[in-house]
Each structure stands twice: as structure tokens, then as C-alpha cells.
Input
Amino acid sequence: MNLNDYAGMIKIVRYNYPWYLLAALVYVVTIAGCARWGARFPILREYALLGLAVATAWTLSSLAISHYVYDRSALSRGSWLDAITAEQAQDVAIFHAGEDSATEAVVSRFPSARVNVFDFYDPSLHTAPSIARARRLATPYPGTIAISTEKIPLAADSVDVAAFVFAAHEIRRDCDREAFFRELSRILRPTGRAIIVEHVRDFANFLAYGPGFLHFLGRRTWESTFAASGLEIEDVRRATPFVLQFTLRRAKC
Output
């Protein structure tokens, strides 16, 4: 078995390992409790085993879906760039919060593009422990620029393609997200496009990730953010059954 074939799923486990350790502990305690007291409390044993079965199914499904999305799908091979040509990607801006899921694909697909990579992580705002772990394990792209969500240090009308790949949902507050996307609207050229790739809080992701789907934002939340930021949706599609890809442009006056 080549572990590189499972690199995306392994990253998810490494970034979120406390949850998997907790799941393993709950599994062991539940099985031990059922073995010791199950005969005395058969109804409780049945409920405990049912709950354990559901939790185990969600844990395994989350790993399987993560492997599919991050290691096996066309999305993992950069399909989110398929609608962009080299002529349309002269100046590219990539945004992330520590786990850069976009730059390698952009540089490989468009070697002549001028690429700026921005890290918007702010530990006072982006407090999920998984982000901090991701940052410790990730190797930043050379020349990555640290920024805030209040200002993007690029001139107006200077970017052909802006990309957020599994990153923008880390901006949890609506006001911060809208302010950042207003900056995005400012730097886009009139012919420019922004590509946003995200899991969303929907039924498919609930089935895949269980309560973990609450970390994702709903489609209506994204649409509200775009509208409030002077951006409009040119295209939206299912990159996988669990991931939406929004292509945005500046709203027409």
C-alpha cells in the first residue's frame, strides 16, 4: 500500500486526531461496559450498541469520503481549474489559512502565471484547534504573504483568478467574511473570476460527517456573503456529491 495514495485522508486524521482518539476511547468503554453490565441492563445495552454502531458508521464514512474527495476525485487533481485557460490566468491570487490546497495545482496548470499566495490566519479569530495543527504540519509555499481579512495588499482591478479551496469557511463571522470578499471584489479585474471550493452544510455532508457537518457553512450563507460583497455567482456546480464549486465575478452595476 502506497501511503501517498491516502495523503489527503491522513492529513484529515492528523489535523483532527483528538476526535478519533475520543471515538476509539468511547468504543472501548462502551464495549467493556456492555460486556460487564449488559446482562443486567439489556435495554441500555441495546441502546448503547445502537449508538456505537451509528458513531462507528459516521467515523468510517468520514474517512472514506475524505479519501474520495481529497485523494481520488477529479477535484483532488485540480478539476476546479478546468474552466480557466492560461490566457485567463495571468495574475492569480490564492488565499488560505495554513493548509494550502490550491497553489500546487495552479502552478502546475499555469506555469507562466504570476501567483501571489496569501495566508489570512489570525489566531484570535480562527480558533479551531485543527487549524493550528495544520499550520504546524504544513510547509508554506515560498513567498506566502501573511494578511488580515480586512485588507488584501493588491491594487484594484489587478487579479484574473482568485482561489479559495477549502479555506474560506474558516472565516467564521459573517462581518469578517463579507469584508474580506468585498476586498476580493475590489482586486478582481472586470473579466476576473473567483473560485470558491467548499463543503456545505447539507444532507449529503451530514450523512458523510455526522455532527461534523456543522463546521461547514450553508449554501444560503455563501450566497448572502457573495451578494453583500459585490459579487455574483456566474456558475455553481457539484465538484463532488459533497463539495460545491462557486465561480464568481464582480456584480454588474
